[in-house]
Amino acid sequence: ANSLAVLWRSDDRRGEAPPGLLLEAHNAFFERVIWAHVGQRQHRWPEIPARMWRCSAAKAASYALPRDLDGACDALKLRQQKDAEGHRLMLKLSKPAKPTKADPLRVWHEDPDELRRLFAYCLQDVRAEHGLSKVLAEMPEEELAAWQLDQEINLRGMRIDRELVEGAMIVAESITADVNRHLARVTEGAVCKSTARPSFVSWLQGRGVEIPRKRPDDPEDTSVTIDAEAVKGLLKVEDLDPVAREALGWWQRAQKASVRKYQAMLARMDDRDDRVRDVLRFHAASTGRWAGSGIQPHNFPRGYEDEIDAVCGDVIGGDARLLAALWGDPMKVLSDSLRGAVIAPPGRVLFAADYSAIEARVLLWQADDQTGLDIFRVFDAGKGPDIYQWMAGRILGKPAESITKYERQIYGKVPVLACGYQMGAPKLVVYAEKGGTELTDELADTLVKGYRATFAPVVKLWYALEDAAKTAVLRGRGAKPVEAGRCLWGVRGRFLFCQLPSGRRLAYLDPDIETHTITPKPTKKNPKPEPFEREVIVFSGQEQTTGRQCRQTTYGGKLTENAVQAISRDLLRDAMLRLDRRAPQYQTVLHVHDEIVAEVDEGAGLFTDFKALMAEAPPWAE
After folding, report:
1. For burial by CB atoms within 10 Å, which of 197, 411, 446, 538 has the most?
2. Integer CA distances (angstroms), 518 to 452, 533, 535, 536, in order
């Protein structure tokens, strides 16, 4: 860093960066913050313009590789790898040392040999980062612009209502204390806190409760879990011990993720402006979608709409009993109030808009299903039913205008949202159950068949994408790309690439074709299905639950889902860039899946203009 500062001064540019100079780091946001708040403030280092920064972690993520340096280098089997032993030493030397009898005033670990070993670790990190970056092509211009904008949004942060957060914490503490009293009573003192997981697991097992395993697909992993899904499943067991059922009910009440989110807000709020920063993670999914970080805003429930101001006002009061009397379960109230914690600072307002049924639209557009698209066109013009009503009418054989709210949900929304990616009846039952809807096997089969008969071009798209991907893999490196579903498929180097309409590419590492034996799940109609052999696409990717790199399989429906989500993401990306370039008064502070939230000075913009800019189709999305 000091050498760089000397370089700039010797260039006689009065502290300005030489033209064309770039600085790359792995997870560069950290380096940017340290440089600005330590280097510039304490050591008078020069300012680095935002345009100069690059990030090898973002580049790796754009290839669907692990973001962490160790994982990315290992996945590619690079010659330069991260120093695991040095990493452990770095963690030790980064923390204060405990005083000893020989050195009661000791504050830090300062053994010269350990420090020399730490310096060697840092050098190896640079070698590994540089080696990783060299084997990957640079991000396309628009992706680089999106990453730079992402950095700006994360540095800008979003304003949090401190009064609401503090009131929510008072309510949560009151409820938690009540839950702890009941837990201690029910377990006869064996479990006194709703945070004592090992004690609670032991107590449940002592009552004969079979706790679900964390990873049932891994026979070597015997660890168990009592997360939200596990508890929900246990409470459905009919012959569950009644005392254990009561304890699980109290435990479930205290485990609301909303409480942890309020705690995270309080811990991360900047005391100067009550803003929380670094809340978005660029290219978190292989499709390019963003994810939440820190307070995880992507998981905020939709919650209250028209009543949000009144509810938040009552939460600020911190009275759990009043909340219960006015709005019901206080823990659910806290969860449903999370979106209300994001506010505008004085003199500014928030604009928020989201795309309507974006994945359903993109899927039909990619499949060139004009019949399905016409349903949206007519609805958008205010002259017909929405896609869910129309779908329900098709399956039930009745006019769309006579469809009830219940029928719209079961026969319309469920199949439209779930069946577009080749989901079969058994999985549809599970999908619907997670959303709070119970389906019989027969009804699920009816919905799947109804969807596929209605949207035949979508069914063709599944097989077209799978055939294109297989053909590209079989043709091998450098062969002419195969076109299907508005995408181009080809193998370049070690990757199978899917080039999207926007020009961005999805990446699948080390693709191959293998013959697998498929065993269908039993159903009432076919309780003993016959296994069959099938050629499948395999590649190296990250396991969704653990993040571990492993061999995975994919198929037409999954490839369709990848492409649709990626195209939807690119529409959002282009909208954010459009707002930034053409209407900078709308400053994006948050975006969630298909929604953009922006701050604007009072009177400086119109919501209709904001929405119009979002809705404008980019050139690649005819």
Report:
1. 411
2. 22, 6, 10, 10
Please list, residue by residue across 47-75, b when 16 or more beta carbons sit within 10 angstroms of its beta carbon and e when fewer do.
ebeeeebbbbbbbbbbbbbbbebebbbeb
Q: What is the rounded distance in angstroms from the CA atom of residue 570 to the CA atom of residue 288? A: 8
For residue 586, the SS3 value is coil
Longest CA span, the chain: 87
Residues 6+ apart with CB under 8 A from 612: none
Report the amino acid identity of residue 561: E
Q: Between the CA atoms of 49, 51, 52 and 55, what dihedral angle is there, to the nearest 10 degrees? A: 120
What does the pLDDT look like over 346-383, one tens digit per residue? 999 999 999 999 999 999 999 999 999 999 999 999 99
SS3 448: helix
Is 376 in contact with 358 (CB distance < 8 Å)?
no
| CB of 322 closer than 8 Å to CB of 580 | no
CA 349 to CA 618: how far, in whole Å? Answer: 27
Residue burial 453-470, b: 16+ Cβ < 10 Å; e: rest: ebbebbbbbbebbbebbb
Cβ atoms of 509 and 63 within 8 Å: the answer is yes
And the tokens for 556?
A: 């037409």
pTM: 0.90
Residue 256's contacts (CB-CB under 8 Å, 6 or more residues apart) are 331, 332, 334, 335
Specify the DSSP class assigned to residue 299.
G
The letter for the amino acid at 69 is L
Rounded Cα distance, 420 and 452, in Å: 8
Q: DSSP letters of 4-68?
A: HHHHHHHTTSTTPPPTT--EEETTHHHHHHHIIIIIIHHH-PPPPPGGGEEEHHHHHHHTT--SS
List CB contacts of 219: < 8 A, sequence separation 6 or more.
Answer: none
- Give the residues across from 508 on adjacent strands: 496
| Per-residue pLDDT tens over the stretch 489-500 | 999 999 999 999
- pLDDT digits over 275-332, tens only? 999 999 999 999 999 999 999 999 888 888 889 999 999 999 999 999 999 999 898 8
